[in-house]
Amino acid sequence: MAVFQKKSDKKSSTPSAADFETSDIVSAVFETSPECIKVVARDGGLVKMNPAGLAMIEADSWESVAGAATLDLIAPEHRAYWSEQHLRVCRGESLTWEFDIIGLNGTRRHMETHAVPVTSADGDVAQLAITRDVSSKKTSAEALQRLNIELEHKVRERTAELESALARLNETERGFGLLVDSVTDYAIYMLDPEGRIISWNSGAKRIKGYESNEVVGRNFQMFYTPEDQVADKPMTGLRTAARERRFETEGWRLRKDGSRFWAHVIIDAIQSGDKLVGFAKITRDITERRAAEAKLRQAQKMEAVGQFTGGAAHDFNNLLMAILGSLELMRKRLPDDRKLLGLLDNAVQGAKRGASLTQRMLAFARRQELKTETVELATLINNVNDLMERSSGPSVNIELHFPRAAIYVRTDPHQLETALLNLAVNARDAMPHGGTLTIGVREEVITPSHPTGLAAGPYSCLSVSDTGTGMDEATLARATEPFFTTKGVGKGTGLGLSMVDGLAAQSGGKLLVGSVLGKGTTVEIWLPIVPAADVVLDSNVTSGSFDAAQLKSRVFVLAVDDDSLVLANIVAMLEDLGHQTIGASSASAALTAFESNPGIDLVISDQVMPVATGLVLIESLRARRPGLPAILATGYAEFPAGVDVSIGRLAKPYTQQQLKTALESILKATASKAVG
Predict the structure, then answer these.
(1) Which of 440, 472, 510, 586 lies 20 to 30 Å from 627, alpha-carbon distance?
(2) Side-chain-facing half-sphere of 104: CA atoms under 13 Å
(3) What confidence score (pLDDT) does residue 189 get?
(4) Is the pLDDT of residue 93 over 90?
(5) Is 258 left (phi over 0), alpha (psi -120 to 50) or beta?
(6) Neighbour tally for 136: CB within 10 Å
(7) Cα-atom radius of gyration of the chain, to the nearest Å?
(8) Helices H, strands E: what count in the chain?
């Protein structure tokens, strides 16, 4: 603990700024700083090191290392680099660099040092450095690493600004004082025992906005928020520091202009003998770091919600598959009773609404099945405009704004049309007394600094703007969260915007939402543009080379699904269509059934199964019988790239008619290939 000597013997119970020499303040910072402060001679010998530095190198006392060769503490692979930087500093440069040290007890630490040259009274040049342990930086999350690198870059920039002042240092003591006053990323100042401010460095001025003459003599409670002052937090911190010699915390602090910043604060008690004479206070603005941490936590939370939602939707798909299939088969066997058929139709509609909900859940989780095509945006919007007008009602005026040149993107046109309808309905609900809904398309070249954060390149922006009630900041911040809705109970799932967000992300783009309370909302869907030279419009025209007569009206189907309800439903629908069917509840059971039944014509398999997926199963079966017709059933969008296009696709849940169509399609394709 540093001991201060007063300038005079005049007794006073309350020290003031005049009672301390610069050397006292420098000595206090030197003794209480949590970072290593040291002086290294030109030959590399240790001239001076504070207690924090001794703790970092695991030395018991200064006497045990005084004059020791600093190079012996540097990790072998960094010694040459450290020596080179040290000599540059001794030749007059101010430098910042990193290296590893190995303490006397063998502990390895990664250090960052800020060094400047100092000249003693006899003309010798040495290195004055502030060094800190930044080992944790290497293991920080990537987002926080980028932030720390940016902050450290700012520190290096500020240190470079000190070069002209530090170059004039003639003695170590004066060098410490100038260094403390020149640090701009930390507010470093002294307090008397009652909390009145005694000194003020340039970092305090930059962070808090006050000049020295505006704060010296005033109580440091002025920097605390009103609620913290009511809770007596400022004096509680001083009492804790006086009792425990040190107090560390984080919280909101106030600048001169009234704005708030999130501060990391350290208060160290300073004693003269056994008497408390004041406190050394170090404050750092960590608002950006806290915001980055909050953003990372939110991203992790949304990822967890997405994983849960995707899994739940998959299970619901299987249940709805069994329900819809059973209801469809039941309808064929019910008597012609209007009441019974009405009840059955209601059940079917309810199950279909459930299927629509699972598709929205999968869209949010970015695991929906996308059937991408090259789409011209103006044409797509015009095609759905009539439906949007009917959905919006006569009180809403819809305006369309398109560029002269056609803009093509690659996405699922059906899903994009659904997204537009959802946005139009949201806009209608936000304009209960009518208004204007504006839908526009524009082209823009995105740069790395664009608010979307997308990769640089040409993009289309499909915007949907209304003149409705808008949203406040709190509502806007949650607008794309799953299951969040401002509508009444039973009037919204809260998956509309999250579905659009998922669609944009799966199409390689981004969703942006902007809104001002009372002034309307604008939703933008950014999608990569397909260059005109690469535009190939999808066509449903087939070659017609197959012979329909070659199609078998009755085939032997191997159905595979690990869900017993779904499997029973598939078998029932296939048998109702007149096909011979055998079921298997796993890939291994399917392989056994295939070996035992050489007459199997086609396989329908679920994709997500334990041990082996549907694709792995199909590949194994085709290794035994090349060209075996196969259909993959899944509610997810995880169909890997490069898979044989001859494998058919069924999106869960599916109806008997969709199953029949898929069977006919894959059999036609197989027959056509055989003829060709």
Answers:
(1) 586
(2) 14
(3) 85
(4) yes
(5) left
(6) 10
(7) 36
(8) 20, 21
> Among 465, 454, 452, 480, which residue's Cα sits nearest to residue 423?
465
Q: Is the pLDDT score of 442 beyond 70?
A: yes
Please answer whether residues 260 and 252 qualify as being in contact, where contact means their C-beta atoms are separated by less than 8 angstroms. Answer: yes
Q: Report the distance separating Cα 193 and Cα 213, nearest Å.
A: 20
CB-based contacts of 596: which residues, under 8 Å, 6+ apart?
A: none
> Which phi and psi angles does 184 have, rounded to 5°?
-105, -10
Dist CA 396 CA 520 (whole Å) = 13
Nearest alpha carbon to residue 56 among 35, 39, 76: 35
SS3 (DSSP) at 330: helix
- Angstrom distance (rounded) from CA 97 to CA 114: 7
Tokens of 182: 């020149």
Task: Centre a 10 Å sphere on the Cβ of residue 666 and count the other Cβ atoms it contains.
Answer: 20
- In angstroms, the Cα distances linking 358 to 362, 366, 625, 652 are 6, 12, 36, 10
Task: Cite the DSSP H helix spans in 231-369.
Answer: 233-244, 287-333, 338-364
Among 177-181, 277-281, 398-402, 630-634, the range scoring the smallest mean pLDDT is 177-181
* Residue closest to 40 by CA, chosen among 107, 95, 103, 87: 87
Could you report the per-residue pLDDT of 100-129, keeping only the tens digit for each?
999 999 999 999 999 999 988 788 889 999
Half-sphere exposure of 146 (CA within 13 A, CB side): 5
- Give me 175's structure tokens: 């060098």
Residue type at 168 in one-letter notation: R
One-letter amino acid for residue 382 of the chain = N
418 neighbors 371 (Cβ within 8 angstroms): no
Backbone φ and ψ of 86, nearest 5°: -60, -45
Q: Which of 669, 671, 651 is nearest to 607 (CA)?
A: 651
Amino acid at 77: E
DSSP label of 248 = E
Work out the number of other CB atoms within 10 angstroms of the CB of residue 112.
18
**Spatial CA neighbour of 384 closest among 444, 495, 464, 442:** 464
Pick from 467, 559, 553: nearest CA to 515: 467
pLDDT at 357 over 70: no
pTM of the model: 0.36
